[in-house]
Amino acid sequence: MEYTGWERDFPISKYLTAKAARSKIPLHGTFELTARCNFNCKMCYIHDINSMKELKERELPVSWWLRVAEEAKKEGLLFLLLTGGEAMIREDFRELYQGLAQMGFRLVLNTNGSLIDEKILDVFRKYPPGRINVSMYGASEETYKRLCGREVKERVTQAISNLRKIGLSVRTTMTATPYNCHDMEEVYEFSKQENTLFETTSYIFPPSRRENKEQREEVIRFTAEEAGKYMVQRGKVILSPSDFRKKAVKVVASCVEDRIKAEESLEKDVGTKISCRAGNSSFWITWDGKMRPCGLMTTPESDVAKEGFSQAWKQIYRYADEIRLPVECKYCDKKMLCRVCAAMCQTETGSFDKKPEYVCRMAEAMLEEYRKEAGREE
Fold this sequence. Notes:
Layout: H1 6-9, H2 11-23, E1 28-32, H3 52-58, H4 62-75, E2 79-83, H5 93-102, E3 106-111, H6 118-126, E4 131-135, H7 141-148, H8 153-165, E5 170-175, H9 184-194, E6 197-201, H10 213-218, H11 224-238, H12 241-264, E7 282-285, E8 290-292, E9 302-303, H13 304-307, H14 309-322, H15 327-330, H16 335-338, H17 342-349, H18 357-375
Parallel strand pairs: 1-2, 1-7, 2-3, 3-4, 4-5, 5-6
Antiparallel strand pairs: 7-8, 8-9
């Protein structure tokens, strides 16, 4: 899967991130401000629509988040992502956002876009975020209703237009599911029309963080083979036929090269460490105050309220340093396709060092799609 982090948008951050990882500086952070959301998406990994009142009562106040932000800033935090749930559902969102912006962080927001009103736009005009990632779940009200339980497509598209009008960088993101995959091309065309960045994925993490077991079992996602097909579909949508074929040829050749390297290697005893930022130069604080290397993991974690930010971060990067991925993934010829990570392994198998079969089958399906294209006569 294509990486969508800061490094691609701001090249200097690649250099800073590498230095931070070596020194265990928490340069990147995520504040998950709430588990509440005004949508009820069928693939959500956290939201529980049946406990909105209880979730609101358990939310941490603005003062807590600002205090933690000050502590994190002293430790080196610069890039801060605000997410949820839907962060803007908090009545005090504008107060919290403004307080964080005044600290000098480069802020990015994840949002479904439906709650962006003039008051929020005014705050963004005064304190522009580095980027806003707006999830667009379909190209029609019917699709939104099926997937999210709300008919708000027009509201979301208007929000994206309004954000672009005031000069903000926007990324239109789409999670492809059995409910909306047919809308991918239309969503991309809208993204082009509004001159936004565009990102899509068809891999959906198992909802291991949902507290309600029944709702965990209700989540519907593609079969691994379907997910692989739609991961490749993005390239077909955004690239010209000739450029897509060039990409397919390159991918197939790279996989062959990786297989040769794997067959020649003799070191097949220990899996690799975490290779992304999680627990190296990045942390995630959940809506109830627990720090984790990544928000999609359930462990390891440290209680920020009890330990304080600095101590919690030390515990997290020590825990993360001990994690090892599956040995099989280290030498797999398709690893450049699946980009397997610790969160995938844990949510799919319950363990960091067990091979996630769903992801393996998805990568194989991706490779098969690329093989078909690479072998096609021009």
